[in-house]
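Hypothesis: this fold can be encoded by more than one sequence.
Test: take the structure tokens below, design a sequence, compare later.
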């Protein structure tokens, strides 16, 4: 089988990229040939995997996306790939992986935190209008045979908004390397990293991992941290243009010694091993790999109700859920987990909740889907 995967910018930090790498690694022995079509590439080619660079001339964001969509699809077809799976909103693809969720839903949820003038600008934005339009055309295109949804939240949203037939909607959760991300990270990294950062063994540490601080909930974390009853530390891992403003806000709120920003990290496992719990109050998150990796590492998680990971959270058992903008409830849940013994008591349940999400299980589901389509 020959499968082309389209992703405009391919970098080692992205959730879509990790999905592709894990799937390709697991499916290599199944005789699946994969070609990756991208404008920019920051990874290394793997056996059974070809890279097709596609970077048409463009001026501006809208022209860039529209030009790439047309050129990438044509390149994949011309190269003889039997199936084209797009991770971008491209009308005419055979398979769409809705890893970024529904753009229209993201715009609706984003309005909750925008000032009136910014909300109006979003509505009038040519790029947002193009993206939402391409999304609608793609879901209504006759060629679309399957949609890979990474959560039931996304699946139900697509069915409700676009009327896509149930037979085309497939919930396939992201696969995890359950040996690489495991509770064993605690013994390997906790003492050393904490000592290096001058953090006492019994101090409560919450870990946040994500790029795009406003969407992922860093402002809410800072607000909730300021009102907590139980002092706790927060480690923020991820890239963002607002890194300096967020650091300034943390200091302005009197959290300078409790909140540390580490920027993007290629390997987050030392932080997972040294932290006590995970927090991700996203405005919208179809299904973050970071939350899966935290649970697999034995960290109870606090996530928002508009996050696909909420489907795996059992309140009081392996974490908590709350509205992304409910600061009072978020602070209360942070306090609950910071109580002595609370987080350790949930570690085993956190691990169990994702133990079925192996890379092998992901590969088997994908291969079954590809064979059915072919």
């Amino acid at each position: 089988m020959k499968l082309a995967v389209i992703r405009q910018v391919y970098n080692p930090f992205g959730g879509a990229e990790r999905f592709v790498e894990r799937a390709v690694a697991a499916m290599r022995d199944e005789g699946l040939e994969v070609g990756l079509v991208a404008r920019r590439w920051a990874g290394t080619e793997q056996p059974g995997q070809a890279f097709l660079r596609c970077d048409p001339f463009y001026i501006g964001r809208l022209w860039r996306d529209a030009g790439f969509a047309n050129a990438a699809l044509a390149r994949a077809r011309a190269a003889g790939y039997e199936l084209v799976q797009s991770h971008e909103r491209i009308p005419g693809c055979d398979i769409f992986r809705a890893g970024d969720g529904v753009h229209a839903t993201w715009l609706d949820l984003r309005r909750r935190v925008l000032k009136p003038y910014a909300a109006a600008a979003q509505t009038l934005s040519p790029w947002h209008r193009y993206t939402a339009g391409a999304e609608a055309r793609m879901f209504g295109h006759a060629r679309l045979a399957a949609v890979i949804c990474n959560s039931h939240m996304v699946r139900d949203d697509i069915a409700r908004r676009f009327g896509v037939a149930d037979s085309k909607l497939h919930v396939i959760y992201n696969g995890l390397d359950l040996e690489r991300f495991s509770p064993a990270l605690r013994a390997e990294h906790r003492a050393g990293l904490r000592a290096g950062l001058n953090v006492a063994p019994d101090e409560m540490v919450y870990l946040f991992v994500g790029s795009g601080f406003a969407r992922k909930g860093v402002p809410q974390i800072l607000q909730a941290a300021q009102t907590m009853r139980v002092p706790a530390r927060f480690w923020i891992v991820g890239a963002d243009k607002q890194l300096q403003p967020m650091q300034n806000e943390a200091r302005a709120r009197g959290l300078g010694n409790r909140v540390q920003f580490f920027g993007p990290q290629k390997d987050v496992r030392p932080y997972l091993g040294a932290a006590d719990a995970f927090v991700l109050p996203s405005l919208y998150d179809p299904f973050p790999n970071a939350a899966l990796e935290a649970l697999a590492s034995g960290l109870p998680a606090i996530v928002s109700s508009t996050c696909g990971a909420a489907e795996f959270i059992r309140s009081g058992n392996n974490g908590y859920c709350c509205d992304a903008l409910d600061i009072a409830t978020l602070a209360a849940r942070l306090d609950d987990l910071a109580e002595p013994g609370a987080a350790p008591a949930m570690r085993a349940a956190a691990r169990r909740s994702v133990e079925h999400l192996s890379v092998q299980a992901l590969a088997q589901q994908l291969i079954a889907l590809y064979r059915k389509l072919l």
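The chain has two domains: 2-175+358-373, 184-352. The CA atoms of residues 2 and 33 lie 5 Å apart.
Hypothesis status: open.
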